Amino acid sequence: MSISPENTPSTVQNQQDASASAEPNRASSATAPRPSEQAVTYRVAPSMTGFTAAGLVLGLLVALLSTLLGPGSMQYTLGAVFGVLAVLFGSLGAACGALVALFLDKKSVKRAQTYRAIPED
Question: What per-residue confidence (pLDDT) applies to 1?
Answer without folding.
Answer: 52
